[in-house]
Amino acid sequence: MTTPSETTTDAPQRVGVLLMTYGSPATLGDLPQYLSNVRGGRKLDPQEETELVAEFRRRYELIGGSPLLHITQEQAAALQDELTRTHPNGPTFRVEAAMRFAPPYIADVAAEVARDADTLVGVIMSPQYSPILMRGYVTTLQDALKALGRDDLKLAISEDWHMQPDFVEAVAEQVRAALDRLPAEVRDRTPVLLSAHSMPLRVVQNEPDYINHLKQTAAEIARRAGLPDDRWYFCYQSAGHTPEEWLKPDFADMMPELRAAGYDHVLIAPVQFLADHLEILYDIEIGAREQAEEHGVVFARTQSLNTAPRFIRALAAVVEETLPRAQPLAVGV
To answer: At CB < 8 A and 24+ separation, what contacts does 170-173 make?
Structure first.
């Protein structure tokens, strides 16, 4: 198999990489369009629409706006530097951030990057892969490239990388660092909540592997962080405000249970979020903190991966592992 660093006629010479993430509104004025994009254009009645926009406006105001785009762009720049450093003899790499529900949209970025590339790699910024949940990223990128009419352009899209060694070690490093910041007298008895984004139960019933991957990631992070089995718990967060059943336990439900068990400190560490955004800066930093303090529990959270060097190396490894699968769209991806 040809490796990316080999300079044969079949090896890619100019590689474009898209870091594809969910997206966030650039300004509060962009909220209505952003929320409409997330809903696929589905309309709400006027009162629901007003209430939804008002609630999200409140949350974004509290965190000072989402830094997701800025951080993803920083991750892209760091990844480009890393790939260039590790491939001194080529190929060349151009890495850009692309968003699914907000500018810069995946289709627009793909068209721009493809101008100077013979191969594109799409990296879905979710270590745990679900064919159903991630389908939108795949079809959006494929459709964008088909519209270019480039028969010479090859494409590969990342799939599951939930056990990528540098990724899980990068999170484990943040867990250890966060525990080291706690007072020495509570450090070895503080429970760690390893959290993942909740979702409706009906979705998971069709994608059991996705949940298993989240739990596997959590268990490996706990092992690498040196946490005994009775010191860590897997839980969910950020459930939607809909009447259907969502996955549990939510970390809000665990706060009174931890206090009743005699714990007075807690550390929360997300196992799938790769950058600071609303689910961390509001749902954890504000929401979970309030829930913990309401029950007399001192709250702490890990720092996000953002541009941590080990995490950037993990992204580089994902690109390396995905690149050999690149094929023309006519052949399939």
So the answer is: 170/305, 170/308, 170/310, 170/311, 170/314, 171/221, 171/269, 171/271, 171/302, 171/305, 172/221, 172/224, 172/225, 173/308, 173/310
Fold entry, domain 14-161+309-328: Rossmann fold (3.40.50)
Of 102, 108, 161, 144, nearest in space to 320 by CA: 161
- What is the CATH topology of the domain spanning 165-301? Rossmann fold (3.40.50)
**What pLDDT digit, counting tens, does each position of 20-50 carry?**
999 999 999 999 999 999 988 888 788 988 9
Radius of gyration over alpha carbons of the chain, in Å? 21
* Residue ranges in the chain assigned as alpha helix (H): 31-38, 46-63, 68-86, 106-114, 135-146, 165-180, 184-187, 201-205, 208-225, 251-260, 278-281, 289-294, 309-322
Residue 21's beta-bridge partner residues?
Answer: 99
